[in-house]
Amino acid sequence: MIGGALVGYLEFLRPGTVIAGVAGMVLLMLGVARLSDLPWNPVGALLLAGGMAALLLWRGSWWGIPLLLLGARYLIAPEELRVRWPVAAGLTIPFGLLTAYLLSIAERARLNKSIL
């Protein structure tokens, strides 16, 4: 799912490249379909949603990254199927930093927009 979101970022960076948008959506849909087969924990899903909401509300800040990390770790309910800490950190920290960076660029562009 994170791979699909990262490929989706490419579509936002260079609009019109249809392949990146389609590939990102296919990867996201495959990730959601595979998650539906696993017993998931609602607390982990809420932590993930809270992390994304924090990144979106406070554009350019890193406050949502710890919530993303905890959500990725506790999303799957049984301990034996749970994502390990190094894997969760290796996926969510770069994703969160990239999201915060891109949102800070978007916020600066919005604030510096001149009307002629």
Describe this structure in words.
This protein has 116 residues and is mainly α. The chain folds into two domains: 1-37; 39-116, no CATH class. 72% of the residues lie in helices and 0% in strands. The chain contains five helices and no strands. The chain has helices at residues 2-13, 18-35, 42-57, 65-74, 85-111. The longest helix has 27 residues, at 85-111. It starts with a helix and ends in a 5-residue tail after the last helix.
What is the topology?
Elements: H1 2-13, H2 18-35, H3 42-57, H4 65-74, H5 85-111
Helix pairs in contact: 1-2, 3-4, 4-5
Compact overview of the structure:
This protein has 116 residues and is mostly helical.
Distance between the termini: 41 Å
- By DSSP, the count of extended strands is 0
Radius of gyration: 16 Å
Strand content: under 5%
| Series of secondary-structure elements, N-terminal to C-terminal | HHHHH
Whole-number mean pLDDT: 83
Counted up, domains total 2
The poorly predicted ranges are: none
The major beta sheet can be summarized as: none
Q: What does the overall shape look like?
A: globular
Name the structural class. Answer: mainly alpha
Please give the count of helices.
5
* Share in helix: over 70%
